[in-house]
Structure formats: C-alpha cells, structure tokens
Design goal:
With 151 residues, the protein is of the alpha/beta class. The protein is built from 6 helices and 6 strands. The longest helix has 13 residues, at 31-43.
Length: 151
C-alpha cells in the first residue's frame, strides 16, 4: 500500500492546481502562524492541509500523504532548518518536483536571494498579508512564481 502512495506524492511544479484540489504541507514551528496559514488556506477552498513542526523527517512525513502539491516552508525550524529540508526534498524521487515556497519572518533581499539559489520556488515574508495571501497561493498553484518581501 505504501508504494502506491509514494508513486503519487508529487505533482510537477508546472501543473496548475485548483485550491480545492490542492494537498498542502505547512512546515512551521509556531502554532499561531500555522493556524493563520491554515485558516487563510481554508478560506480560499483548500481542504487538505497538513502540518509539520520541524524540517527533520519532512520527506518521510510527506511520503505518508496521498499527494503533496505545495510545501510552505519556514526557514528557522528546530532540528533541521528549511534549507536542509529543501535539500532532502529535492533528493527524494517522489518529491523532487514539488513546489516549495519559503514563508519566513526573516524576509530580506539577501535571504530571498539565498532562497532562490537554494532552489525554492517562491518566497513570502511574514507577517502575511491576509488580503494578498490567497492570490499569492493561487498564483503559486498555477505554477507562477511569487517572490515577495512584503514591503
């Protein structure tokens, strides 16, 4: 059974996905931040949202999900940071093409450039703007890039 789940874990980054069909993993260690993200995602129609509090074991966790279309990744995480988690995701055969977008309170031009060079698919700075966030996620799910410092 697990083998069948793993075959379907990732959708290519260029495949457009409607919010109501999206499977999203939020990797965030702050409960309040996760609750805000989950509520905003639910508001826009996302019904499948999972939560992981650390970058450690993110590949194993994601591979238990039926599918992962988008990973929203904090950078400053306990045990393994977002960069290390991304490195492991990109090495996993089933997740390597999954969209992975930074969501961080440490938004700066330098951090954004580092995230681009590391291979992230986008960048959102906290505090998230609840008026803009749904459109940003829709764009990302359509395969568009969003690199936003929020300034």
């Amino acid at each position: 059974m697990r083998e069948n789940l793993m075959e379907n874990t990732s959708v290519k980054r260029s495949t457009p996905i409607e919010p109501e069909d999206a499977h999203i993993l939020v990797v965030e260690d702050n409960v309040s931040n996760f609750v805000l993200i989950a509520r905003l995602l639910a508001y826009m129609g996302v019904q499948k949202c999972e939560w992981k509090t650390t970058g450690w074991g993110v590949v194993d966790f994601a591979n238990t999900m039926p599918r992962v279309d988008l990973i929203l990744m904090d950078l400053r995480l306990p045990h393994e940071d977002g960069y290390e988690a991304l490195r492991q995701i990109r090495q996993d055969e089933h997740l390597k093409d999954t969209r992975v977008v930074v969501v961080t309170a440490h938004g700066s031009a330098a951090e954004m450039q580092k995230a681009r060079e590391a291979g992230f698919d986008g960048f959102l700075s906290k505090p998230l703007d609840p008026d803009r966030f749904p459109d940003q996620i829709r764009k990302i799910l359509r395969g568009e890039e969003v690199w936003d410092l929020g300034v």
